[in-house]
Amino acid sequence: MIERAVQIAKEGKRFLVACHRRPDADSLGSALGLIAMLRATGKEATLFMSESIPESLQFLVENEKGVGSFDEGVRFDATWIMDIAAKKLLPPNLPGPKVTGPLIVVDHHHAHDDVGDIVVRDTGAAATGEVVMNLMEAVGVTELPKGAATPLYAAIVSDTGGFRYASTRPDTLRLGARLIENGADPWRVAYQLFERWEPARLKLLAEIISTLQMAFDGRAAIMRVTRKMLADCGANDDMVEGMVNYARRVEGAEIGALLWEWPVLEDGSNHLETKISLRSSGKADVSSIAQALNGGGHRAAAATQLDITIDEADERLRAELAKYFG
Ligand SMILES: [Mn+2]
User: What is the model's pLDDT at position 260?
Assistant: First the structure.
């Protein structure tokens, strides 16, 4: 369907560009890269942003104020949604189709549902940022537009864990090289994304690591984070991002898991659900486990959210892991 998307990019005039719910660096970096590309071809492009942007991603949006609501009568020719794998990950308060026009999904997730009217999905791409680069070429933008290098570099660096994950291909590194040639600053991006931890976050890490349990003869490492732990450390949920990787790091662990107490306020019920983040150290396909638990993701990184307590989620997870490990 890339032809359809390219045609709309060429023929449309006003576009909205959105991230998935709780935007990460790939989603936001891809959105900003696409916006730069659309503007370079003379189009109007607006960033849709209805949530707060995590501290670690603020450096990307220095010059771009997102819009979260619209005046009567505003119409877009299409809305691009970046890095989205499932309908339930549509950003909150996205206006209806009269305002947005058709939804064009740009993505790279292996496991996904049928979100979007038009889908540009390359499951071989290490990041949605890569898909944006290919889209750019297909639209005929040969020179990297001003302002696109840093966000696209951040997208790719983030989703490849700094060019470390198995998804890193020669083309990924070539793209990285091209982005650096065009002004992306590797250390500035790495520092913002991976280093720069507030003291509260390090305290929280210590708390989370203290919950580590090994299961299935050391083949699974399970940790948890509760609202109380967050409050005790003066930490927030953004700071939990990436913590699950510490479980994967344990030698011998094929699967690392983090159970994460998650407050649900939107439906007015103000109750706690549990997110489960899963990581594979190579052998295991955690997307299949996440799918069995109503979630999705990639082979190496997947997640789900269940409307049960953290202890119940722990049990559900262990039951699925038991099936997996046989
Ligand atoms: Mn991604």
Answer: 98
Residues 266 and 130 in one domain: no
Q: How far is the CA of 102 from the centre of ligand 1 (A)?
A: 22
CA of 10 to the centre of ligand 1 (A): 25
Backbone CA torsion sign across 129, 93, 272, 239? positive
186 and 233 in a single domain? The answer is no
φ/ψ (deg, to 5) at 123: -75, -5
Q: What is the pLDDT of residues 146-160, one digit of tens each?
A: 899 999 999 999 999
Residues 6+ apart with CB under 8 A from 71: none
Domain boundary among 148, 170, 194: 194
Q: Are residues 232 and 310 in the same domain?
A: yes
210 CA to middle of ligand 1, Å?
A: 29
Task: Report CA(83)–ligand 1 centroid distance (Å).
Answer: 5
Which residue type, as a one-letter code, is found at position 274? T
Distance 46 CA to ligand 1 centre (A): 21
Residues 6+ apart with CB under 8 A from 321: 215, 216, 220, 255, 257, 289
CA of 232 to the centre of ligand 1 (A): 31
The Cβ-side half-sphere exposure at 13, using a 13 Å CA radius, reads 1
Residue-wise pLDDT for 25-57, tens only, equals 999 999 999 999 999 999 999 999 999 998 889
Per the prediction, the chain carries an average pLDDT of 95
Distance CA 311, CA 55 (A): 30
